[in-house]
Amino acid sequence: MTDLTQLTLSEALKKLKSKDIKASELTDAHLTKMESNKDLNAFITETHDIAQEQAQKADERYANGTAKALDGIPLGIKDLFCTKDIRTTAASKMLENFVPPYESTVTQNLLNDGAVFTGKLNLDEFAMGSSNTTSYFGNVINPWKRNTGDDAQLVHGGSSGGSAAAVASGMVMAATGTDTGGSIRQPASFCGIVGIKPTYGRCSRFGIVAFSSSLDQAGAFARTTEDAALLLQSMAGFDPKDSTSVDKPVPDFTKNLTGSLKGLKVGIPKEYRVEGMPLEIENLWEKGKEWLEEEGAEVIDVSLPHTKYALPTYYIIAPAEASSNLARYDGVRYGLRMPGQDITETYEKTRAEGFGDEVMRRIMIGTYVLSAGYYDAYYIQAQKVRRLIRDDFMKAYEKCDVLLTPTAPSAAFAIGENEDDPIKMYLNDVFTVPASLAGLPGMSVPAGLDTKGLPLGLQILGKPWDEETVLKVGNSIERAAGLSHMPVTLDGKREAA
Amino acid sequence: MNERKGQDNMDRKTVKKVARLARLELNDTQEERLVEQLGNIIGFVETLSEVDTNNVEPLASVVDNELRLREDKVVDGGQQDAVLKNAPETAEGYFVISKVVE
User: Fold this and answer.
1) Model ipTM?
2) Active-site residue (options: A92, A183, A234, A410)
3) Residues with Cβ < 8 Å from A434, sequence gap 6 or more?
4) Residue A458: phi, psi to the nearest 5?
5) Is B71 a domain residue?
6) Model-level pTM?
């Protein structure tokens, strides 16, 4: 019998529709896979019983001809999305026992389409990190290993590390993530899968634990571009409950996925050729250009002059918004409470106990840059530079339709590396942060392996609201790269791709 | 207003002040570490001061949504139990905190 966890989402849907397989079999296969991959620590909360119940209902709908778009597909949900009556922690001690009485709009959309939720996925605490090593519930381990014989455990990237690990290892068919500065694209690159962040405003933020409200955007992880398109289709859409949700029709993301790239202009931003970038990443980028040219696209050079200011801008705006958003954790209405002598001491003790080091650090930076005397010099200046960064992209898009760049300046690094130096860790996001600041859609597609056998991704950035072209170019790279969609997992059942 | 001396200015006193504003209790080790780390990070973001932003409007949001108005009609409510469900301490339908007025 075929291993059901190796099917793509779209293959599984076909087999479910043709009644070759049952949703309950499909879910059980994934729950078994979750058991055998427990060492990856991808899940914070597993919901086996709920999943089996949902799968059974999906089978009933397949039987009576009322099946929905994602009926019976086992998905993992980043533990930043509130799920009704299922614990939602944001990977923080602060919310260790928080059980939301409501459902986030994105997960509700998925449930309406018949999806099966097998559990809540691990992440960096409050989605703050680039390595998934700040979770209160422990590190997520990358299912990929270096082929050099060293046994180093590699990070899965962050902040949506659990989502990426679960999809890459076949524990779920696809997963939700959120991307504030690269938290979908960077982990997707580190683990050889597809990750797409749509245009800011495409998916509702209602019910997603807030980190940086002007940057946070939900997106999809899957093993193929087609699967990512199918998942995003279900997640996206206008929501009156989110004032930054945009009322635009959602196109059919799979419709134009495989077309020719004739007439398409692909921009190569020269500022993304950063010093110290490994040669193999540079070479892969070259290869990506060639692949797209072979498909009929024209590759041109463009300039995004304010690129080098993107990270400093991000590390003012994101912590500033975070310090404001996280003010709500006061030990009064929900979450942890550590009693003090008076209310102020209760706040201070609660927050010191509930937040980890990285979260505290970012609250401190944010509070500092927003404080009297510094507000104009840091925060307002950052918002002005943010506009210049966005203007750079808009000017580039007068000459081209999409941009092609590497997703990250390195492959997955070992757990513990970069940890002593927050700034070095922040540099991981150098290629993903600018598009986040500009609110643009972006996707990472696995494009090759480095000399140690680790996956590397290429990033495609599109015009606002043009996820379709991003997906189409991504699909083209996926076909040209011809990688197997499953990685070398820890349990060793697969050979090198 | 343009006091850009973050990196050099970062000292125990500033860290204590900011921690107080953020309502975070720090121990000595944390304070010491934050003096160094905040100083480095502020030094890192300081490069923004070299960008000429005269006549540039701050960008607060990438979507230019006007805030929408909805019909003045009750759509939700009567959720007292749900609202209180996750509270550390409640009494008679209220959140309970320690005494704040003498």
Assistant:
1) 0.92
2) A183
3) A304, A307, A310, A389, A393
4) -110, 145
5) no
6) 0.94
